[in-house]
Amino acid sequence: MSIQKLTILGSTGSIGANTLDVVRVTNRFEVYALSANTNTKILLQQCIEFNPKIAVLVNENLAEDFNSQLVQAGCDTELKTGVDALDEIAENSEVDIVMASIVGSAGLKSSLAAVQSGKKILLANKEALVMMGELFMQVAEDSGSTIIPIDSEHNAIFQCLPDTGIGIQESQFKYLEKVILTASGGPFLDLPLSELREVTPQQACAHPKWEMGEKISVDSATMMNKGLEFIEAHYLFGLDANKIEVLIHPQSIIHSLVYFDDGSVLAQMANPDMRVPIAYGLAYPERLAIEKKTLDLVEIQKLEFRRVDESRFPCFRLGVEALKEGGTAPVTLNAANEVAVEAFLSGKIEFMQIPAIIESVLSEIPCEAASSLAIIQHVDMMARKLSNELILKEL
Questions:
Q1: Could you say which of 84, 86, 388, 392 would form a disulfide bridge with 110 (CB–CB 3.0 to 4.6 Å)?
Q2: What is the pLDDT along the chain (395 residues), one digit of tens a residue?
Q3: E strand map for the chain
């Protein structure tokens, strides 16, 4: 079996680190390139251990010092800097697989570059589909790129569907009735609504089941992550909004369910561990043995499910509404959310101001057809500008 070369976009984040954990237990992959924005400490450790051909540091101000650290460590990895270098390692002809795990819109351009090059893409960057889903999937079809979703919910759906590939249209897959994405409900599932205004960033980032970065942890606490995943599922699987549902499942054992017309329901189950979908994506269409905690249903005893309370989680409602509106509405949604979450994490706004700001921005930014990257980037810029202006008014 030939060794496959792997680029990890965003290697110092939780998805990148878990990907390298999987690479450690197999001899099937060679790390070609790693990238980070500013986390030179972890990137250096990764370069020393995996000796990639290229390391990309997006923050150019840190480049000189980091290059000296590489030399001092005796690491012969070549350092490249800046945003354009991400595109280079994503589309390089030597690379077989790209893990696209940069959080937020910052990962948009490099994810698109990987798809345009026709590679196998392990897609952990929600925003690539939220912001430019139709365009992204069309480019993948034209280039012959294979997209494997890494979000545990979409990966679960992918595992449950017949092996017909990503981008299934309803006319091609007539037996599918609906899919259900599950959500843990985050750290505030049972917190009295009156107390949500007072929650701190530290509390919002203390997820009960998953170890994740700050931004996605806050998205889980607001359930915006499920709104974004609702949009993702639409584009990945070619499903109308009325064929996508979300249930809260606090145990995070069943990651998604697929309902068929004959009454059959398939569910993918696993302990909450991102290495499971990552390993499946790396080895697809095969599977990799990884060190894991075996799922013990007797120990768990019960699996609970609840409907989503939109009064508690208005961000989820905004995500669903943005998909139904279509066009650039999801672009506006994502941009406003990124700015609002950053403001919350830095103590500028309260937790419940996050959905209020997003809803205000959605009501003021005109929706248009998301027909080009230029239009998408322009709407993104306008939404960020307006979001920042609204936050300044709150201070």
A1: 86
A2: 689 999 999 999 999 999 999 999 999 999 999 999 999 999 999 999 999 999 999 999 999 999 999 999 999 999 999 999 999 999 999 999 999 999 888 889 999 999 999 999 999 988 889 999 999 999 999 999 999 999 999 999 999 987 655 554 444 467 889 999 999 999 999 999 999 999 999 999 988 877 778 998 999 999 999 999 999 999 999 899 999 999 999 999 999 999 999 999 999 999 999 999 999 999 998 999 888 889 999 999 999 999 999 999 999 999 999 999 999 999 999 999 999 999 999 999 999 999 999 999 999 999 999 989 899 999 999 999 999 999 998 76
A3: 4-9, 29-36, 54-57, 78-81, 97-100, 120-123, 146-149, 176-183, 244-248, 254-260, 265-269
Could you say which of 99, 114, 149 is where a domain stops? 149
Tell me if 231 is assigned to some domain.
no
DSSP state of 107: G
Q: Examine residue 63 and state whether it is found in any structural domain, yes or no.
A: yes
> Is residue 20 included in any domain, yes or no?
yes
d(CA 381, CA 395): 22
CB 391 within 8 A of CB 336: no
Please indicate, yes or no, if residue 72 is contained in any of the structural domains: yes
- CB 182 within 8 Å of CB 248: yes
CA distance 51 to 287: 25
Q: What is the CATH number of the domain that holds 126?
A: 3.40.50.720
Q: What is the CATH number of the domain that holds 374?
A: 1.10.1740.10
Number of domains within the chain: 2
Domain-ending residue, one of 131, 149, 167: 149
Handedness of CA 230, 318, 223, 202 (dihedral sign): positive
Cα separation, 141 vs 147, whole angstroms: 10
As a whole number of angstroms, the distance between CA 355 and CA 341 comes to 10
